[in-house]
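Here's what a typical entry looks like (Ribosome-associated protein):
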Amino acid sequence: MDIQVSRKLTIPAAELGWRFSRSSGPGGQHVNTSDSRVELFWDVASSKALTDEQRERLLEKLQHRLVAGVITVVSSEQRSQLRNRETARERLGEVVAAALAPDGPKRRATKPTRGSRERRLQAKGKRSEVKRNRQRPAFD
């Protein structure tokens, strides 16, 4: 089943790879016999579904999550493999959509106001007073 990331991008099912293994957690005796943990992986670097601009942006934004150009999403929260597959598909779509989303406006640096500086210093003074009062009195 294809993953609809946005109106402009759909990841074809043929480009997705699946790996299944035993999941930890609840399930009783059944958990020891079923492969309900799901790993979904997609090769971003060689995907035919992406334009060159999209590929560059994904490789840059997701560089910390990629291993040799492949992104992997794991799901093991559900007891059923089918539901874990759906969760993994949704997560991959969310990750890719977030990486492709345009960046917001750049923050303009501003100086703190006089009032905010004074409030900060007052809060620091109160905090130091509280800590000073916790100390044992010094005996001379």
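The mean pLDDT is 83.

More examples are in the samples folder.
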